[in-house]
Amino acid sequence: MIPLLSIKLFYLQMENALIQSYCGVFGSVPEVFSSAPGRINIIGEHTDYNSGYVLPTAIDRHVVLLASKRADNIVHVWADSYKQEARFRLGEDRDTKQGGWIDYVKGIYWILAQKGASLRGINAYVWGNVPLESGLSSSAALEVSTLHALNMLFALHLTPLEMAQLAQKSENDYVGVKCGLMDQFISVFGKKDRAVFLDCETLEYEYIPIYLTRKGLGILVYDTGVRRDLATSDYNKRRAEATEALEKIANSGIRSYRDITLNELQKKRSKLGETHFRRARHVVTENERVKKAVDALRADDFLELGKLLFQSHESLRDDYQVSCPELDLLYDCGKRSQVCLGARMTGAGFGGSGIALVQKSGLPSFKKMISDEARKKGFKQPSFHEVEIGEGARVHRTQVD
Ligand code: GLA
Predict the structure, then answer these.
(1) For the CA atoms of the chain, what is the radius of gyration?
(2) In this structure, are strands 205-209 and 194-199 parallel, antiparallel, or unpaired?
(3) Count of alpha carbons within 13 angstroms of residue 302, beta-carbon side
């Protein structure tokens, strides 16, 4: 185990190095240091915008934004990962999207202006180690770190929940992805070694301990390398289909998918039609799996958790139809491997990443198995990340001697 002191020292050194980088670009020291993590979702996929349950965790990968107020209305951002700068002027070109990463920052300014916040320009330096466009929510992390920084710089007094909701709204209404609340919520509320069991209808949540290391287990993220832009993928279409299906079966007793059992749903199969039935069946069964996964974690039963991960993937592949051959490869390898307890796609799907619950000692052989299979099938060479469950967003004023 790495001693806590050396972890703190590592972060202090990293912060100092980033402050130096900010100085290199802007010639002064930043006022605030804001950091927000990416996420994986253990289980509960495409349930957040269906008023269901989710069980995500923050990961030990972050987007960091260092920023200072400017006297004028210009927002000037340097993105280290892209070695690119972008600028926009408040009020004037605020409503037009520029395309690319800057729109996540613009979206936050846009949503705050809708709320009536009075803001000025900033200089900002963005650094991150959340793999980009991999389905690990680097965009939510950028939104949340931007919001935390603006909240502190302009004394907006936003609560953590307001920040998660505003970030989601900016993605819905500015970027154009009709996502649920999960990614922004976990980026704000994540906690080390805890999954967050969130009820997306009531917004009640509970921290569920998840200690993998003492069981010799680890979470492997498998990045297919298949990139998809959610704004143009079938994500919004799935959301619309799930809403239409619910409308067909809604009545005074059924307001959401939580009010109907699988048995009752089966009886409505012909009324729904095959596509709508399948979308609905995924949501109803996935909600049940999330609750079972929470019970499994409470009982430290990782074998049961693994089975639920496999079942979740089957449902996403066959009923919700958001998987792809590269993601199915993880599931297939996981099923055949002795060292993998469970595997599934994580996040929106259509590419991006999957997660596998794996015995740490077997990680190298499991990775090799997947890489070999990917090569045989002529898929892109995947990348792997061994992630830890990390803390949620934080912001503080920089202290410079
Ligand atoms: C994306 C969205 C989330 C959620 C997942 C699927 O990550 O941003 O709101 O809908 O897809 O579970």
Answers:
(1) 21
(2) antiparallel
(3) 20
Tokens of 207: 């921290």
Atom number of ligand 1 nearest to Cα 135: 7
Pairing state of beta strands 84-89 and 32-43?
unpaired
Nearest to 173 by CA among 103, 91, 240, 244: 103
Q: What is the pLDDT along the chain (401 residues), one digit of tens a residue?
A: 556 666 677 778 889 999 999 999 999 999 999 999 999 999 999 999 999 999 999 999 999 999 999 999 999 999 998 999 999 999 866 668 888 999 999 999 999 999 999 999 999 999 999 998 899 999 999 999 999 999 999 999 999 999 999 999 999 999 999 999 999 999 999 999 999 999 999 999 999 999 999 899 999 999 999 987 766 679 999 999 999 999 999 998 999 999 999 999 999 999 999 999 999 999 999 999 999 999 999 999 999 999 999 999 999 999 999 999 999 999 999 999 999 999 999 999 999 999 999 999 999 999 999 999 999 999 999 999 999 999 999 999 997 65
Q: Which residues contact 200 (CB under 8 A, 6 or more apart)?
A: 47, 48, 49, 50, 51, 52, 53, 54, 180, 181, 182
Q: Where are the alpha helices (DSSP H) in 34-137?
A: 102-114
Per annotation, catalytic residue among 48, 103, 183, 223: 183
Q: Helices 274-298 and 302-315, interaxial angle, to 10°?
A: 170
- Count other C-beta atoms under 10 Å from residue 292's C-beta: 17
pTM: 0.96
* Separation of CA 15 and ligand 1 centre (Å): 30
Q: Please give the number of the atom of ligand 1 that sits closest to the Cα of 181.
A: 9
For 291-294, which contacts have Cβ atoms below 8 Å and span 24 or more sequence positions? 291/53, 293/42, 293/43, 293/44, 293/55, 294/55, 294/197, 294/208
Ligand 1 atom closest to Cα of residue 180 = 9
183 is catalytic: yes
**Angle, to 10 degrees, between the axis of helix 325-336 and the axis of helix 363-377?**
140
Which residues lie with the beta carbon below 6 Å from any ligand 1 atom? Answer: 45-46, 48-49, 179-180, 182-183, 347-348
